[in-house]
Amino acid sequence: MIIVADIGNTYLKMARWNGERLSHHVRVRHRELLGSDWQATLEDSAKITSDGVFVASVADETVEQLFEAWLLSRGHAPPVYLSSTREACGLRNAYVQPETLGIDRWCAMIAARAQHKGPLCVVDAGTAVTIDWVDARGEHRGGMIMPGSHLQAESLFTGTRHVHESSKAPGQLFADNTADAVVAGVCHACAALVERAYGEISSQCAAAPRLFVTGGETDRVVPLVAMEVDEQPDLVLLGVALLAGEPQR
Asked: Which whole-number Å values give the CA distances from 195 to 18, 131, 201, 202, in the listed order?
């Protein structure tokens, strides 16, 4: 039994892995919050015993240190921070410097590849939107990154007078008020990039790629995407579990 964690730019997600499935999920926001506040939310998991804690983190060192301190205070072993490698779990990394590929992206691709051996378009729609292409041989063919819908909207309402983002998901494409127009613009921009990437992958593959989508902003992007989507909230956590079980190379 191990604990797996995904520490993103905004949220920390954690679950228990028994070798077959994930359980005891916890999700807490850490961005712009005091460490003591979000650490307190983890208390429901304080009694979980494990044979190790494995982490995919793209957060800053302060968040990692606070998480590690919480683990140690509850009797857990120091966490193992995973990193992207040249090869793992049947995948080959496209990056010249493989360790510079975001570990969350690497884990999402590993989890997707474990479920489908054909071509893949793997999307993580969160604070940033990342899109990665994996071909049928398990070769990572590269990816792209753009700001997520909230981050795009934030740049507007912090740099433009009287512009405020609506909290709701976009309705129609053309809005009749500024707040909804911002939401429509940024969410459709994210969806359009996903469709553009999927179309490019499709044009270079003999079989249609499978589109996996994960991340905290899926509800703002997935409904706007025209093709079939395999939406999996735990894709990164599953990848952490699979990568934790394989020697690093």
From this structure: 36, 10, 10, 10
